[in-house]
Each structure stands twice: as structure tokens, then as C-alpha cells.
Amino acid sequence: MLRVGIIGGTGYVGGELLRLLCVHPKAEVTVVTSRSHAGKPVDAMHPNLKGLLDLKFEDVDPSAIAHKCDLVFTAVPHGAAMNVVPGLVDAGLKVIDMSADYRLPADVFESVYNKKHADPRPTVYGLPELHAEEVKNATVVGNPGCYPTGAILTAAPLVAAGVVDRIVFDSKSGISGSGQEPSETTHYPNVAENVRPYNITTHRHKSEIDQELRALNNKVKIHFTPHVIPSVRGILTTAHAFINKPLTDDQVRAIYNEFYAGKPFIRMSKPTLANVRGSNFCDIAFEIEKGTDRIVIVSAIDNMVKGSAGEAIQNMNIMYGFDERTGIWMSGLPP
Amino acid sequence: MLRVGIIGGTGYVGGELLRLLCVHPKAEVTVVTSRSHAGKPVDAMHPNLKGLLDLKFEDVDPSAIAHKCDLVFTAVPHGAAMNVVPGLVDAGLKVIDMSADYRLPADVFESVYNKKHADPRPTVYGLPELHAEEVKNATVVGNPGCYPTGAILTAAPLVAAGVVDRIVFDSKSGISGSGQEPSETTHYPNVAENVRPYNITTHRHKSEIDQELRALNNKVKIHFTPHVIPSVRGILTTAHAFINKPLTDDQVRAIYNEFYAGKPFIRMSKPTLANVRGSNFCDIAFEIEKGTDRIVIVSAIDNMVKGSAGEAIQNMNIMYGFDERTGIWMSGLPP
Amino acid sequence: MLRVGIIGGTGYVGGELLRLLCVHPKAEVTVVTSRSHAGKPVDAMHPNLKGLLDLKFEDVDPSAIAHKCDLVFTAVPHGAAMNVVPGLVDAGLKVIDMSADYRLPADVFESVYNKKHADPRPTVYGLPELHAEEVKNATVVGNPGCYPTGAILTAAPLVAAGVVDRIVFDSKSGISGSGQEPSETTHYPNVAENVRPYNITTHRHKSEIDQELRALNNKVKIHFTPHVIPSVRGILTTAHAFINKPLTDDQVRAIYNEFYAGKPFIRMSKPTLANVRGSNFCDIAFEIEKGTDRIVIVSAIDNMVKGSAGEAIQNMNIMYGFDERTGIWMSGLPP
Amino acid sequence: MLRVGIIGGTGYVGGELLRLLCVHPKAEVTVVTSRSHAGKPVDAMHPNLKGLLDLKFEDVDPSAIAHKCDLVFTAVPHGAAMNVVPGLVDAGLKVIDMSADYRLPADVFESVYNKKHADPRPTVYGLPELHAEEVKNATVVGNPGCYPTGAILTAAPLVAAGVVDRIVFDSKSGISGSGQEPSETTHYPNVAENVRPYNITTHRHKSEIDQELRALNNKVKIHFTPHVIPSVRGILTTAHAFINKPLTDDQVRAIYNEFYAGKPFIRMSKPTLANVRGSNFCDIAFEIEKGTDRIVIVSAIDNMVKGSAGEAIQNMNIMYGFDERTGIWMSGLPP
Question: Which regions form coiled coils (chains A, B, C, D) (predicted)?
């Protein structure tokens, strides 16, 4: 049994990791930390876990953790992870970091997040469909952002095929991506019966999308605008791509099928948030506009699973040689 | 033109008063106060009013207000109103208070709200369908709570008829009743796809329901449990009433029709939140359970209109001899 | 591996059984029937299952089914099941029926559903927390209705203890209980931002609640009013119970703990739809009203799981001697 | 008092016209037709109007209508209007048609709607901000589609200024645009917690957007993809525009301010569906992407008001020389 810990287990990301890991057949959660709730039962903060998990929050102590864990997930805020991870690595642990701290090279991070990086080690971008080999041998994996997971998976095959010049990602996300902390933007009357674009041309997740897609084709132009819709979970990504040569449906389908061959969580299937809710799947479909140079590719993921905790467990599975589906091979929850 | 002011104009109640008053044909808003936003345009906080209202927030100054107003609505928190109202009254103004401070006799208020009352004057409970005559001549009107408006209107005719022994009010409210301030209970993921009972046997609004219904029949037993549903506006009140003698549909209908004769905002009509949304109507229907002593009466109101700002304007209309429908005679907003 | 079939696999109930059974470690779905979709892949109707299940819909043929199955779930409409079940039983199969046809004695069924019963065999009411012993040896189990599951579990301990005289169940359900077929009552604009009481004093599920609670105490008076809230899944049951002697919190807690000792899916925990969403748990809490004879007990279940498919699988587990948690021991899905 | 009739008054469009017209100070509804509900009170289908309107549905009879009306709104399906309008015009009535039948030249209509046009008269496209002069003198006005109203108003100033080469309209609409008839796509479980792109490259409304924007600059390339979000009312249009020369914020703002000078319903204000809900406003904002050729313009309208009934009444006001705000000058309904 792989022994895993969660650093920062009170928020949505920690809760979602626990939801999935508490029934994972090859991993056991042995430590969950929280500075502010140390000593309290984990199910006091996550009552959905009552009966499924019998642990108390502990304070963070790398050497104590190292005695009880093989791997830790760091689910602390951006900027905090970089101060926690080195100690964990030094104590001999592998780390999957859920924040933005290990997704970008340190210099890019510093420019995008406007913050000095305290631990500028080389990073592995933990998008398993693109980087399984590097993940396999990584000590620290930077787990991707939710929007980037959706956007990159939507467009990567066409970009890699060199047929796309420009893509506008118009993304629609559930509000859970904003986290557990109440704010004006998560206030029910401000979300319900509404749809809110934000950081319209400036969202920091764009740097991850740029990094990954431009690694596949450095000439592609990327635009990204996120919106929040009245939904708790899920991201629907609408990618308006402009192609540089005519393509048929069959050609596009072949590009996707080939690119994602052997990737169990990618389904060429009409995307709806319901069909992927609670699951690690990414459903993708496309439509070519007749008489123009536009192709629209649409995908759906659960931002908390494939866009966060599920993807992290998929990375864990890969790091330890388990079938990558282990513990996360379940249906979405429609309706 | 009646000149009106709003003390505390930044919240939901102030905003809703402004939404309705800015097109009221016999009243003009001349002052809107806010300590924290003094000097800012009102439409900076209420962008829905842009183009409809050209005012700036002012600081609270009773004598200045008295020069510009005939009537003020006090839309400040419970416990704060009692410190503001005396100065306004002394300056010659009439007041409709939106808080709980003037709904109950001072001794009852003190016991329910656990707070010394600073202005223990006799109160007029501003439920126009029951107290139009007192409202007409009042200087200070205590505008009813949203749950009490729904509950009292639902049951008053049967209680007054002396046919009911006990009523369980199971109320379902939109979240806007919690106000504009974000909190854990208004966080979208905690409200959506959920329904939350709270203050299950202890909600303070029960004292208003008690006061009004027991004035009609002091033997009736009242129970009240509120719930929040995933809706922004509206209260649906389900009243489970236990009757002390058999009644037919026709008898019950007659009781309601007679009690509400000449009350334009009460409609005997299948209640849905949509049909009353944004409007001052209260829609009521009932069903007698065959073979038992239960009758179920259901009503729908918009908590922000008939349960707050609309009812206040109805009171204003009555105080100044206008037709009580003036400025609030509009359809609900389905779908 | 237990071989199971689903008769009527295109609707919500069939889909939810498939969602859970496709990853059940001791059961394998070998047959899914649909008259209208025979020959089509199951994941054409349930795209959430793509990759998880490789089956085609078949036409209904009891003898063919008997060769491939040990147990079948009949997920066909009320009134249809009674015509299908006898043939399956004669072919040697065990049956868990998801309709209302086997929940009530035939004479009660006929009176409530106003329909002649074609198969008036003795029934086993498959509420595992009350009838595990009978379920164990049953050939045909009538799987309970969703509202009754919630209502009975909420009140049974107090009723069995003889301390309750009367209960008003005010239930709030997600719309998925209305099934997959679009109608005026499931039309989004009629459900969103609304709450709708229906069959206010006449819902047929009341007969199940009566049957089970009056078997525990035949003097208790039962009232039941269902509502639909803007939620897809979940039932919150608010039980207003009137007690015949004073009770303390400790006494009530002891009554529940004793009654549900050893029942893994019952949790004494603050009920929210989110915490049980997608899971088989029933979360229960209570509050005693000071100075009156009312106690309010509240529960939350997922109507599609504990109120339908999950409970059916729990029954299956019991019938075949598996741990009753097998395949359904998973967390709810908050947020 | 202008006498107006509504042909086809049972659906959402008819209901919304009635909601607004029943309190319009210069118009009186004298006829509402419905073949299937002739003889029934209008408020039986539109219970929100109870107390506000005392009319019965009548059968359609152009000459009878002509005796009682000056103007009629035809709110019948696409393809049906063209068979009704000629008779009304011949009877001397002015007509505002709510369907697609009079928005496009007959040849374009026939190609887009794949249907022979029965009444190929020249059309006036009733977007008042662009065509007030033609509307003023029109006999038949084709009231614009909801998506086109949002899209055209969002982009027209930049297109007219010649600075835009290509625009991708990614529109998000409430479900009320699908009408009153329940269907799989309006089924609550399919809409809630979801977002659905549809007619991704083929929506027929694109022809209206093309017509109007290419009349302003025939070189602009238009793309349009609509989505349905879990909202009843409202359209948020996200326009990703590609500019052919660098622009500053001030320049863009000046372009909009000049283009919309004297247009009371256009507000340069952060768009939210709540701020325009129930109102005739169109709120617009923009953001220029640094370092690229993209500008994102976003607008919000209520699809049932500015995108339908409100715009029609605005057209009516213009046709009869009333202030265009008459009867529709009201705030949106936040929260």
C-alpha cells in the first residue's frame, strides 16, 4: 500500500483528493495536515467523508510526514508551496504540487505571478496525456491548472499537427475553481442566473497554455478568456481555431484518434459537464465551419477531478507504476 | 411630488427601494445615505440604476435630510435603526423602518433580540392587509420581516375565523434574504443543488408571526422552520394547519375571499415564485386533506418586494393617501 | 461474479444502476434490455459510461436472460413491472423491482394506484435498515420509493420508540425524481428559481410511509407534502414530529444510535444534499423545540442512490451475502 | 391611447409583450389571439397577469382585429407569420413581427430557412439603435432575433469604424430563448450545472448578424457560436474581435460613445445578466489585449426584453412618435 499525505487538507482540492483517495485500492492516506485545524477530525471539515476516513488533521512537520508517507500532495496556495516542497523533498518524499508553483520555469513563474521563486528547480508539467514519461521519473510534479488542462487537451492534437495558426479559447467554468473561501464573486446572487467573464485578456493560466501548445508548435497564436457560469463543477472549453489548410471531418478525427491513442481518459464524445462530473474523463468533439477557416473544438472536464485531484492521482498512479486508471476509473454523475 | 430619502442605501434593501422608487410617479428620491460611500454616485453601487437615477451617496445628517425629504426609509441593520430613527422623527420626518427594531413592542424586542431597545415607542406593524388604518396615521412604521409577511398572509384568514388550532410553517426562501454580504451560507457551492434548513426551531421572525396571528386568535399554536433553497428571490410558505372542525373547499375559499376583499395584492392563485418575482403580489392556494384534520395553505411572495421594499412603498402610499398600488402595480417576471 | 441484468435500461434508474454496477467488484452486468433501442450500444443512451461498459441493448426475452443472469433489476414503469416479473421468476431469476408494483400488498396497491394487480404475491419491502432479514431470503424485492426511503429513515426510530403521535413530512426533492421524459414540470424555466409543492395531500408514496411507520406504531398519524426544488438530485426531508412526552437531546440521540447500530449508511450528521450526492448515505439530524411538543428531524439522501439504485444494490449485496457496502461505499460529491 | 393586438399570445413572447404592455401608459392591449385557447381568460395562461389584465383569448380574424387595433404584434412561429401578416396589412394595420419572417430579404430568408417565402415584401430590420428612421415609417417591422440584437450592438461601432477584420461571437444564452415547449434540451437535468454549445457553426441567426454588420463594413469576417447556460433569461455576448490597427482604450471608448450618442438603452457599463434582467438595456464593456491584435467586447441583454418584446415596444414607440423609452424605462432586477 502506497502511503500518501496531503499538505493543506481543508480546502476544496484537499477534500477532493481525500474523496478519491479514501477508496483508492493501492494508496492509503496516512497524514492530512492543517495548521489551523490540527487535532480536529478530518470529517469535521469534510462531513461527506464521515465513516470513510478516520484521521485527524496534523500540523506540518516534514520529518514526521516522511516517516509515514511515500508521497505527498501539496494543496497549499500559490507562493506557499515553494516554501514547503524543498523540505519534503529533502526528507525523501515525492511531491505532487497542486499550486501553480511548479508548472512553469522559475523565470516565467516570476514574471507571470510577479513573485520571486524560492525553489527554482526544473519542473515536470503533470499533464499525463502529454508528459507521462517525465512524470514517471519525477520527484516533484507540478499538477496543471484546471483551465489549461481543458484548453491544452482540446487543441493539442491540431496544434501538434501544424494545421492551426491561431486559437481563441473561450472557457466556461463552474465556480468551485474559485475555492472554498466566500467572496463577492462566489456570492450566490452574483453567480446564479448569470455568466461572468473575468481577467478577460490577462488570466495567468494562459502562460501554461502557451507553454504547452507552443512546445508543440511555436508559431501558434493563443488567446484565452475565462467565464464563470452558474455551475459548481466543470469546465467547458470552446476553442475557436483557425486552420491554415482545408480539413475534412475524417482528417480531424484521425488526428485526434492518433494523438490520443491509448489514453483512457480522453473520449471523443459530445461534451457535457454532466457526463464527466466527478470523473477523470475529458470528452471532446469538433465541428468544421463550412466555407471558412474556422474549426470549433469543444471539451468538457470536471475542474476538480481531471482539472485537479483526479489528474494528480493519475500522475501518482504513473509515478508508482500502477495502471493509470487505478482508483479513478469511474463514470461521471449525470444527470 | 413626495420627497423621500433612504438611510443606508448600499445594500439589497436600499437597492430594491431605489429600483422601485426611481420610477414611482408620485415620489422622488432626493437623498440616499451611506457613511462608507459618501460622495460616490449611487449607480456605482447599483449599476442597474445607471441612466435612471442621478444621485450621490451622502453622509447621514438628520437636519439636512429633513430639509430635503418628507419621508425616509431606514435600511440599516437591526439594532442600528433605533439609534437613527429618533433624530429623524425629531427633525419632523416620517419613517418607514426596514429593520426589526420597530416591529415588536420594546419588551418583546429586547427578549427576542437580546438587546436593550434605545427607542421604546409604540410601534405600528406595517402589514397593509392587516393594519392599513394604523399605517395611515403612523409616524414610524415597522416594516414586516419577509418570512412573517409570507406566513401571516398565508394563515391569517383561517386563524381569524377561529377554525385553526395549530400551524406548522415550513418556509422556503431565496438566499437574497441573507443580504449582500458574502458568507459561507451564501457561497454558491453551498447553496446550489441544495436546500438548507436553519434556525430550525429558533428563528427570530417567529415572534412577529406569533404577535400577528395570536392577535387574531390567542389560542393558536405556531411552529416555524425556515429553509434556504437555490433561488435568489422569493419565499414559498407551506402552512400545515390543523383545523378544529370539518371545512369544505367552498367554506375555506369564502373565508379567504372575505378576509382579503379589496386587497389588490392578494391573489387566490396557484403560487409560484416566478409569477410574483419582482412584484408586490402574494399568491395563495390551499388544499384540504381528505379524512384528516389537516389543511395545507401555500403562498408565494418576492421576499425583496412584498416581503420588504414593495411592502414599504405600499405603506408609503397609504400614509400619503395615494392609491396603494401606485408605482408597484406591475406584473411578476416569469419565466 | 454475480451476473446481473437490467430490464428497462434507458431511463434514469437504469442509468444509475449501470453507473454503480459497472465498477461493482462482485457483480457484472451481462444484459441490459430496451425494446425501443435494441441493438444500440448502451453508451449511446448513457454516454457517461463510454469506455466503462461495452454492451448493447437487447430485447426482453426472459429465457435468454435467465441463461445470462442470476438477478435482474426491473426498471420499468409502475404497472408494467407486474407483467414482466412473473416470467423472470419462473425462469429462475431473482428480481429487484424498482417500480411501485411490489412495495405494497396487492390490495393496497390496487386502491392506491387504482389498477388491478396482475401478480399479487407477498412482497418484501426492500428498505435494508428495516428489513435486511427478509431481503436476504427474498425472490422478489420491491425497492422503496425515494420519498418513503427518506421519510421512513428520518422518523422510524422515534416512531418505534412510541414517543411520537403525529408527523408532518415536508419533503424537498430534486427534479430527477420525475424521470428522463421532458414535461412542463421539468421545463428549466419552470423549475429554476422556484419551488413547487405538488400532490400536496395526495401523493401515492404516502402509502409506503404509512405501511412502514404504522407497522412500528399503528397509532401514529402521518401527513406528507412533497415539493420540487431547483436541484437535480437529492431529497431533504423535514419531519415535524409531535411527541407525547418530554425528551432531551441525549435521549433522542440514544434512540437513533440504538436503532441504527450497525447500519453503515446511516450517519448522524448535519444533512446537506451535497454531502450525500452520488452516494448511498442517509444523513440525519434533529432539533427539539423548547417549550413545545415539536421535534424536527431532518435527513438528506440522494434520491437516485439511497432512494433508488444504490439501495437496490445494497439489497442485492444482502441477498447474495456480500458486505452490504460492496460497490457503493463511496463518498458523496461536494461541493 | 394606441390600441394594440397580439397575434399568438400564449407563448413566452406573447406573455412578455403582455407583461410590458399591460402597464404601458400610451398603449392598451385590446386583442390577444390564440386558436387553441380562444375563449379562455388570458391570465389562465399567464397567471402573473392576474389582476392586471382582463381579456380573453380570441380566434384570429383580421377584419375584427382591424376594428379594435391600430398595431399588432405577430408572435407566431417562423414560417407562420408570413401567412398572417399580409391579411393584417391589407386590413390597414401596422405590424411588428416577432418571428424571423421579415428580418431578411426574401431570397436570403429562403436560403437560410429552406422555405419559400409567401410574402416577399421589402423589410425593415427593427434594431432601433441602427434603423430608427426606417422604423418610424414602416408598415411591417421585422423584430430582430435575440442573439443578433446582442451581437450586432456589441460590435457595430467598431465595425462601422472600419477597424475590425474578423469577429468571433461566442454567445451565452438563457434557456428561455428555446420557448415554452418542453423538450430534451430544456429538461432541467440537462440544463442545470451544464453549458451546452449548439448549432456550433450553423445557427440561422448568423444571417442577421452578417446582414447588419456587413452593411457597415462588407469586409468583416463573422463567426458565431451560441451556448445555453443554466439561466432563464439573458444573453451575454463575448465578441473576440481582431483589429487591423492599434487602438487605445480612449479611442475605443470614443468610438462607442459617438456611435451610441442619444441611444438611451445602451450603457457603457460592466455587463451582467442581473443588471439588465427584465429591462430593455444593453450593457457593454471592452478590454484590449496587450501585445496582440485582439479586443474583447462583452455585452448583456435580457433576451426576452431587449432581445424581443422590449425592443418591439421600443419600435412601436418610435413608429407612433412616443419617446422611445415610454413604458420600458425601468431598472433591471438584480440580484
Answer: none
Give how far the C-alpha of residue D141 lies from the chain's centroid of Cα atoms, to the nearest Å. 12
CB within 8 Å of chain B, chain C residues 67-96: none
Give C-chain residues touching B277 at CB under 8 angstroms.
193
User: Does D296 have pLDDT greater than 90?
Assistant: yes
Q: How many residues does chain C have?
A: 335
Distance CA D125, CA D146 (A): 13
Element (H, E) at A283: strand A282-288
Grid cell 484548453 is found at A151
Domain D2-122's class? alpha beta
Cβ contacts of B193 on chain A, cutoff 8 Å: 232
CA distance D186 to chain A (A): 13
| Pairs of CB atoms within 8 A across A/C | 81
Catalytic residue among C22, C69, C146, C282: C146
Comparing alpha-carbon positions, the chain C residue that sits nearest to A189 is: C193
Is residue C60 pLDDT above 90, yes or no? no
Provide the b/e sequence for C151-167 (b: ≥16 CB within 10 Å).
Answer: bbbbbbbbbbbebbebb
> What is the radius of gyration, based on Cα positions, of chain B?
19
DSSP state of B99: S
Question: Between chains, do D231 and A298 touch, taking CB under 8 Å as contact?
Answer: no
The set of cell numbers assigned to A127 is 499533464
Cβ atoms of B239 and B185 within 8 Å: the answer is no
List the grid coordinates of A63.
520529518
How crowded is residue B261: how many other Cβ atoms within 10 Å of its Cβ? 8
Residue carrying C-alpha cell 433576451:
D303
> Which candidate from B12, B267, B274 shows the least CB-CB separation from D50?
B267
How far is it, in rounded angstroms, from Cα C269 to Cα C246?
23
Query: What's the mean pLDDT when you consider all of chain D?
Result: 97
Could you please state the CATH topology (level 3) that the domain comprising D146-302 is classified under.
Answer: Dihydrodipicolinate Reductase; domain 2 (3.30.360)
Nearest by Cα to C62 from C31, C36, C102, C27: C31
CATH topology of domain B146-303: Dihydrodipicolinate Reductase; domain 2 (3.30.360)
Nearest alpha carbon to residue A303 among C272, C188, C174, D193: D193
Question: What CA–CA distance (Å, rounded) separates D228 from B165?
Answer: 49
Pairing between β-strand D57-58 and β-strand D71-74 as defined by DSSP bridges: unpaired
Residue C92, C-alpha cell as written in the block: 429462475
Amino acid at C80: A
Give the model confidence (pLDDT) of A156-188 as tens digits: 999 999 999 999 999 999 999 999 999 999 999
With beta carbons less than 8 A apart as the criterion, state whether A40 and A55 touch.
no
CB contact under 8 A, A48 and C274: yes
**Residues A170, A253: Cα–Cα separation, whole Å:** 22
Average pLDDT for residues B244-255, to the nearest whole number? 98
- pLDDT tens-digit profile of A59-110? 988 889 999 999 999 999 999 999 999 999 999 999 999 999 999 999 999 9
Least Cα distance to D297 among D177, D203, D159 occurs for: D159
Would an 8 Å CB–CB cutoff place A233 in contact with chain D? Answer: yes
Ranges of each domain in chain C: 2-122, 146-303
- Is the pTM for the entire model greater than 0.95? yes
Residues D20-44 have pLDDT tens digits of 999 999 999 999 999 999 999 999 9
User: Considering only CA atoms, which of D280, D325, A189 is closest in space to residue B48?
Assistant: D280
User: Across the strands, what pairs with B228?
Assistant: B173, B196
Residue C176 per-residue DSSP state: G
Q: What is the Cα–Cα distance from C287 to C275, expressed in whole angstroms?
A: 20
Gap between the Cα atoms of D118 and A263, Å rounded: 54
Mean pLDDT score across all residues of chain A: 97
Q: CA-CA distance, B239 to B155, in Å (whole number)?
A: 7
Q: Give the single-character DSSP code of A333.
A: -
- A309: exposed, middle or buried (Cβ count in 10 Å: 0-12, 13-18, 19+): buried
